[in-house]
Design goal:
The chain has 393 residues and is of the alpha/beta class. It has a single domain, classed as 4-Layer Sandwich (Purple Acid Phosphatase, chain A, domain 2). The chain contains 9 helices and 24 strands. The strands form 5 sheets. Strands 4, 5, 8, 9, 19, 20, 21, 22, 23 and 24 form a 10-stranded mixed sheet that branches. α7 packs parallel to α8. The radius of gyration is 20 Å and the shape is globular.
């Protein structure tokens, strides 16, 4: 009698199929991060800073964010190298060697001075600093967020062109809705493909006027989290998906602060798995890490926190520990898209770079994940090297 198998060898190779015909393939490992905010203060510390003029109520020069960070945590040796801001993350990339590196790029990459009026905060990074992404070998940037149009449509156009020239895949914003909604399809040599779709919602602060259309550039904006939105994602995925493809939805949703996860988000995430065949939901917008769910074997990160920002020296919300973040390394079965494991490396933002989290930092994050994951029957185990491993029921 033939039986289906799913085995794990000592080399980490998955074996599945039947006794008559065995198939061998390695798990696909994807690095996911929260918001990477390379504009404003960080841009000023890089080799080619933008014009520092900004239009915020309390700060008129982006250099001010460097100054308050220095006052709080000590000198930053700027101009810094492109590798500097990634810091310890580069060591972890070498150690884990993920197949893909996926981030939410929370800034416009432009020299445009056409700032969006009354926006409040306008992030931009000089295109001449684009090597900051290629140095870290970032494969994909989600652009469906509330800062990609901070410097107008000309800023968006330059962002798209700069990423294209640097060979950094992206979507979530585009010259038309068709372009913004088109997923990035990335080949994992000898091991299948990964499709990444990016969406944003107005709950994250994206102005509704930023929505792309057939005649207007903008963001791939979801009007709501309705069944109609689920069906739209399902149809787009169905058009392009091949047997064995892993489907990732990267979504900018919800407010900046607070651990509570809206029931509408949970319902929408579940429907994406049940009806649209999505394998990983990569949620971001919250400035701090939130609870994690594994639903029917599929990973749902509701809020992945800030991975890089210029918030040092800005007071308020300290109890959320927004300087702490995680490098999410999710390994999935290529045949099913189900999670094999989620390894998480605790990090800390200080001196405008990613630093290794201390044991105390790792314990704080573990306790938070256990507390917030209780509703989802998930938790985190602290390993001897201070990394965390997701556990689920």
């Amino acid at each position: 009698m033939q039986r289906n198998l799913l085995l794990y060898s000592f080399t980490g190779i998955l074996v599945f199929g039947t006794f008559a015909e065995m198939v061998f393939c390695k798990p696909i490992t994807i690095f996911l991060s929260g918001d990477v905010m390379l504009g404003r203060g960080i841009d000023q510390a890089l080799p080619h800073p933008s014009n520092p003029v900004i239009y915020e109520q309390y700060m008129k020069s982006a250099k001010g964010y460097v100054e308050i960070a220095v006052r709080k945590n000590g000198p930053i040796p700027y101009p810094v190298s492109y590798a500097y801001v990634w810091g310890y993350a580069l060591d972890e990339f070498k150690r884990v060697s993920p197949d893909l590196r996926v981030i939410n790029l929370e800034t416009s990459v432009t020299k445009s001075d056409d700032y969006w009026l009354n926006k409040g905060v306008n992030y931009r990074m000089n295109p001449e600093n684009i090597a900051v992404l290629t140095t870290a070998k970032i494969d994909y940037c989600s652009l469906a967020n509330n800062h990609v149009l901070d410097w107008g449509y000309s800023g968006l156009m330059e962002t798209l062109e700069t990423l294209k020239k640097a060979d950094v895949r992206n979507n979530g914003a585009g010259r038309t809705l068709t372009e913004a909604a088109m997923p990035a399809i990335m080949e994992i040599k000898g091991n299948g493909r990964v499709l990444v779709f990016s969406y944003g919602t107005t709950t994250s602060g994206i102005p509704s006027s930023w929505a792309a259309s057939d005649k207007k550039p903008g963001v791939n904006l979801l009007k709501d989290l309705s069944d109609k939105a689920v069906n739209s994602i399902k149809e787009k995925a169905k058009e392009l998906q091949q047997q064995g493809d892993i489907v990732v939805v990267s979504i900018h949703w919800g407010g900046n602060w607070g651990y509570q996860i809206a029931p509408a988000q949970v319902k929408f995430a579940h429907k994406l798995v049940d009806e649209a065949g999505v394998d990983i939901i990569h949620g971001h917008s919250s400035h701090h890490v939130k609870g994690i769910e594994v639903y029917k074997g599929k990973l749902i990160i509701y809020g992945s926190g800030d991975f890089l920002n210029d918030y040092e020296g800005i007071g308020g919300y300290e109890h959320f520990r927004s300087e702490l973040s995680l490098m999410y390394f999710v390994s999935v079965e290529p045949s099913t898209g189900k999670i094999v494991q989620l390894q998480m490396t605790p990090t800390r933002i200080k001196h405008f770079k990613v630093n290794r989290g201390s044991k105390a930092d790792a314990l704080w994050l573990r306790n938070m994940l256990n507390r917030e994951g209780k509703a989802f029957k998930t938790g985190a185990k602290l390993n001897k090297d201070n990394t965390l491993t997701l556990q689920w029921n």
